[in-house]
What does this fold into?
Amino acid sequence: MHVAIAGLMLESVSFLPDPTTLADFQREELSGQAVIDGHRGTNRIIGGFVEVCEAEGIGMTGIVSAGAGAAASATDEAFDHYCTRICDGIAAIKDRIDGVLLSLHGAMTTVTRTDPDADIVREVRKVVGPDMPIVVGLDYHGNLDEEILRHADALFGYHYSPHTDMGETGARAARCLVRWLKTGKKPVTAIARPEVMVPSIFSATNLEPLAGLVRESIAMPSTVPGLHDVTIFAGFSYADAPNTGFSVVAVADDKATAQQAADDLSLKINYERHQLYKRNLVMGLKQGVDEALRRSNSARKPILLLEHADRLNDSTHILKELIRRGAPKAAVPFLWDPKAAAEAVAAGKGATVSIDAGGFSSDRAGGPARLNGKVLFAGDLTYRTTGPVGRGAEQRLGPTALIDANGILVSITTRPITAIDTDCFTQFGLKAEDFPIIVLRSKTHFRAVYQPLAEDILIVDTPDWGPADLTTLPYRHVPTDRVYPFVDRGRP
Ligand SMILES: [Zn+2]
It folds into this structure.
């Protein structure tokens, strides 16, 4: 038996002005056998595909895989490029394969498409015909509806955010395909949508009541006969699409069992909608920085300031406030600014500099912060992730600088990387625990490492494109006449 494996991943913030280009995807592109070899042993969806197929003696042909993290809508050119390569690659071997495994995000948008993930699956279906299995692994933040299910046979998503189970998700998908191929028994998949949206910051699966709902989704298959797998997808509220929001997907032996499981959990999500949307945990900029400065004097561990509305790692709202207030010691890891990084690297280690950094990705990013200080590190930085999310994955930051601006340590990267573990300290010989205040921009992934490391996590809402208050966003495609929090209608 033999399967084709391909992937394309982008989490789109549709409101950002500069689209994600082909070049952005190409930085992480793998092609042919490198798709298999490059993912083997990684905690990624395709890593899970490879692990199960190799254990089960299933042959694999890698087509292409690419990703651009979380960024603006893709250009149509980039989407067409990868969609064509995936389809052409599968078409060339379709007589030799028994199934297709795809790794997609689910919350990609392009400049003109609102559900390109479903579009890829539809095009692949056209290539392989109606009977060949297509099984898809997806991000927990995917926005899904019936459309993708018209073309895919089964969908599997991460159970957790932070996404510590990406590899296991790929393995769940691959085990489903293997079971189908070996038994000849086709799985049936159903979806239900509670019409609820939450900001990413509240999609963390260790927050109740979401934690309990996720536990229930994982436990369901062991208590319901014929039910194989259930995923709660939180959706991604900054991708503007008709299907943005929560969904529940269930895979079972028969349609009724799958639909019942999906409907049950969907109703519970709708019922819990007020508790899922934790407005009272969000602080304003001044309030958050005030509290961090006050409490960091006596705290035994770092106070974390979360600039969660930043989608591209260049927001300067909190950094500027810390500078303005003369914060004595703080860390602002992985601020994205290629120009500032180049300038600092050119000045070199030990140089005294005055550099404008960050705040450029949109008119909501805060404008540049002036950093007056000393360059402590200057050079090209590439390393492998040591934290639990994406462990082993290569991180290429490009030319990178660390500047000490009167006690506020800012690392500036050429590529936009979100700091989610302590690599952003250890790569420079620093310890996170030594900083009374740490500014991060992660939504949920940081929690695996920083929840135990930090004294407290202060969620600060800044005016950037990922705010906690979704009603401030200029949606064009989200059905705001139907979905919570735009309307608040309990459903029976
Ligand atoms: Zn995600």
About this structure: The first strand starts at residue 2 and ends at 13. DSSP finds 15 helices and 18 strands in the chain.
